[in-house]
Design goal:
Blueprint lengths: L1 H27 L2 H37 L3 H9 L1 H23 L3 H54 L3
Length: 163
């Protein structure tokens, strides 16, 4: 989880930066600047997430070895490193959409999207972890991030109606 949290700090920084610009574009009713900002911020966040995943891929074992000297924990950690590589690029979209929704003052829609995503995550995590153990839990987290992005995408049209 420390790897996911570290990646989210970097990726959320783009979302934080985008909030103000999105608020400005919505206030000025400048749809072209809004679309350009959304497109550029999502691309920048995604490309950064790919770089983060590559760094994690290259240095995962070294970081785990610094975090713990207990061989059993190291061995267990190595088994789940694929999730650390996959999640940042997938999560980059939902982090960035969060910033867009906050900047556009669409927090009610953001809340509703989160309720759907969290309810789905709970159901998925119970089922998948029961049958697939920790891999099922990691898969549930990945699916949560995907659901967060998809549910926010469903509400995205409401922001465009502000222009």
């Amino acid at each position: 989880m420390q790897f996911i949290i570290l990646a989210s700090f970097f990726l959320d920084s783009y979302a934080f930066s985008t909030e103000g610009i999105i608020g400005y574009t919505v206030g000025k009713k400048n749809k072209n600047f809004f679309i350009m900002t959304v497109k550029n911020s999502i691309q920048l966040s995604f490309y950064t997430s790919l770089i983060i995943s590559i760094i994690f891929l290259c240095f995962f074992k070294q970081v785990i070895n610094v975090i713990t000297d207990i061989e059993m924990l190291r061995f267990i950690s190595y088994k789940y490193f694929i999730w650390i590589i996959i999640i940042p690029p997938v999560a980059s979209f939902c982090y960035q959409l969060d910033g867009i929704f906050i900047g556009a003052s669409q927090t009610t829609d953001m809340r509703n999207a989160m309720i759907i995503s969290v309810a789905s995550f709970i159901i998925l995590s119970i089922y998948l972890s029961k049958f697939y153990g920790n891999h099922g839990l990691w898969l549930s987290l990945l699916l949560f991030m995907i659901l967060r992005s998809l549910t926010l995408k469903l509400f995205f049209e409401k922001i465009l109606k502000k222009f």
